[in-house]
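Final report, closing paragraph on structural work. Over the funding period we assembled a curated collection of sequence-structure pairs, and we close with a single example.
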Amino acid sequence: MFSDRPTRREVVIGGTTLVAAALATGASGLFMPARAQGLAPTPSMRGGANNYRPGAPIVERIGGGGFWMSGTVRRAGDGAPLQGVRIQIWAHTTEGHERDPQSHGATLTDANGVFRLEMPQIVPAFGQPHGHLAYDDAAFETVFLRPVMPSAKDTSLSTHFVLQPV
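Its predicted structure, as stored:
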């Protein structure tokens, strides 16, 4: 019987062949990370700036933790990852309302433009479990995001910024 899908053996052998070919040709850019060309900037979301606190401190974790907020930050146009970008995060959680100072914190992106911050479990506010994230430094246009979670039982939320230089 013939199948359109490769077998596990074909995938392993094919992967080995690809690696061997890349090594033999000097990789020719095969393993360079892809970068988007013409990447449009992320627009601010309605309600994203609600309860924003300018200058929230950079923290290791907000409250007792248990929920992970993460994402990436890239430059509009070429999609290059942005290192050292400050992202503020806040939400209505099991430990406080989104207007409370203890419900706010900020983190910095790593060399790959990735950020990650642990916080208490997000709970619904106004019927929706959602988080708030902001980029508000001087190098790029300000962006406020308010992503809604599919379920209040989710223990993580990932969102992405594409920033437009000013």
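The chain has one helix and seven strands. Residues 90 and 136 are 14 Å apart (CA to CA). We thank the funder for supporting this effort.
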